[in-house]
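Researcher: Predict the fold of DUF3426 domain-containing protein.
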Amino acid sequence: MADNPIPPRRAPRKKLKMPLFGDMISGSSGQGGSKNFSTYLFLLVGLGMLGQLFLPQLWAEKVYDSESEVRDMEIDGVLRKKYADASDRSEIHYLLVVVEKEGKRKKLDLYRADSLFFEQVAVPQRIKKEAGSLIVHVTRYSKPDTTLEIRFKE
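Model: Structure tokens for DUF3426 domain-containing protein follow.
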């Protein structure tokens, strides 16, 4: 038994570190690892709260809902979404999302308008409207082109 060689003792391995936080979690008590963690956690929560305040206003898209805005806008694109929001029965919002040729989206909210226009258009149709007018030319695939008018309630 005495003639079996004993292998030499290996040096301890280095501890793994995370790229940004370093020795934060596995640090010894003398280095204040938990103090760094709470500081970073506080900063992350603060940034998240600021993001919740400011990002929705930055990402919100313009909604055209008044008669003057709809009259003054020019549309030449494809109707991509059509839906109604009836969460309040006294005020039903008829929403249309039109994607123009350049890729720009326009969102129309026709809750002040008569629902007849909303009922007559469908999703894959092309819509063309001149500025200063409420007359809309709708290109359909199964029927000849149609001219519709958006009528607002008074």
